[in-house]
Amino acid sequence: MKIAVVAANGKAGKQIVEEAVARGHEVTAVVRGENKTKAQYQLIKDLYDLTTEDLNDFDVVVDAFGIFDPEKMEEHQTSLKHLADILSNTATRLLVVGGAGSLYVDPEHTVELMNTPDFPEAFKPLASNMGKALAALKNRNDVNWTYISPAADFQADGEKTGKYSVAGEELTLNSNGESVISYADYAVAMVDEIENGKHIKERISVVKA
């Protein structure tokens, strides 16, 4: 498949590129500067300058954008909206590296993880903006999107086991009572979804098995 990974130089982006390339896919790293990934191709362009024409030839676009500047948290909303807008009414699928803060902790789906007492205050602006971006995406029927939330403990340097469980909109614990997944195993889940396309217009979550 032809896959574009936006913000490929980030931690999640690099792992997704590596996993996709290892499986024989044709991967283009969409980056603002030097390509630091294993992608076979590169498109050097700012996310906000991307056009429909830039992405027309891809089967899948992965949005791995993330920003941690407190003054720019709203870019989680504006960046996803821009990508959705330029992929509107096209066959190209949009897969989003999501956050865990918007996962529900109750069966009624009234309480999100970010609104529970133990959720770290420092991460609330990030979780809130990512949650609003997801809410806007859910209202769109013109984009073939899939939003993948990691487990609550998203470990950049965690091991690759290749084993994970897929859950839905609720925070899910594994058999050890943990909500954890490594970036490497998340990348496996992402590329599996790219290949299988089982959750179009859905948000799913993944946790280490």
Write up this protein.
By secondary structure, the chain is of the alpha/beta class. The chain has a single domain, classed as Rossmann fold (3-Layer(aba) Sandwich). It has five helices and ten strands; from the N terminus they run βαββαβαβαββββαβ. It has an eight-stranded mixed sheet, sandwiched between helices. α1 (11-22) packs across α5. The longest helix is centred in the middle third of the chain and has 15 residues, at 124-138. It is globular and about 45 Å long. The mean pLDDT is 97.
Distance from first to last alpha carbon = 27 Å
Shape call: globular
| Mean pLDDT over all positions | 97
How many helices?
Answer: 5
Helix percent band: 25-40%
Q: What is the count of structural domains?
A: 1
> What's the β-strand tally?
10
CATH class: Alpha Beta
Strand line-up across the major sheet: 3-2-1-4-5-6-10-8
CATH topology: Rossmann fold
Q: What does the largest sheet look like?
A: 8 strands, mixed
